[in-house]
Design goal:
Blueprint: E1 2-4, E2 7-9, H1 28-43, H2 56-61, H3 63-76, H4 80-103, H5 110-134, H6 137-159
Antiparallel strand pairs: 1-2
Helix pairs in contact: 1-5, 1-6, 4-5
Length: 161
């Protein structure tokens, strides 16, 4: 960790387009957006584009989101208590990611993009830690498979003209 006059700087390794097998023209901001979207999709919640943000309650009630939660329930074999806790966790994560997106919506500076990335990473790490407490190791493995599938689908959509 490096120190500056403003305090500590944490280093976060970001995968560049070629590291992920993506087209070389994808910018870091677009890559971050795709990663956050893929994570949200893997979690069962879509993030609305800027200017079309939905409330967390509305997002959780959409038919597409309900289907994703139903898929997670089936694939993970969730107990009713796990389903309730996972739904709340997903809604909280979506709300936090939406707030970060909105906070930096007009900031296109390098510092703004970095701050947005760092704040999003903190939300993702918190989500993962809480998810590990909620799910069994087998469920967590299946969750990771679902997340990988969602990321692959997001990459395919990003490469479409």
């Amino acid at each position: 960790m490096a120190m500056t006059a403003g305090g500590p700087i944490q280093t976060v390794r970001c995968l560049m387009p070629n590291d992920m097998g993506l087209a070389g023209g994808m910018t870091s901001l677009r890559l971050l957006r795709q990663c956050l979207l893929a994570t949200a999709l893997a979690c069962g919640l879509a993030i609305a584009p800027a200017g079309h943000a939905q409330g967390a309650g509305n997002a959780a009630r959409s038919p597409e989101i309900q289907q994703r939660i139903a898929d997670a329930k089936q694939r993970l074999k969730l107990t009713p208590q796990q389903e309730t806790q996972l739904r709340a966790l997903l809604q909280e994560q979506a709300r936090k990611l939406r707030a970060i997106r909105d906070k930096y919506a007009d900031d296109t500076t390098l510092q703004g993009r970095g701050a947005r990335s760092r704040e999003g990473q903190v939300v993702q790490e918190d989500f993962r830690a809480r998810l590990q407490q909620l799910l069994s190791p087998g469920q967590l493995d299946e969750w990771d498979k679902m997340a990988a599938e969602a990321r692959a689908q997001a990459r395919e959509r990003a490469q479409q003209p």
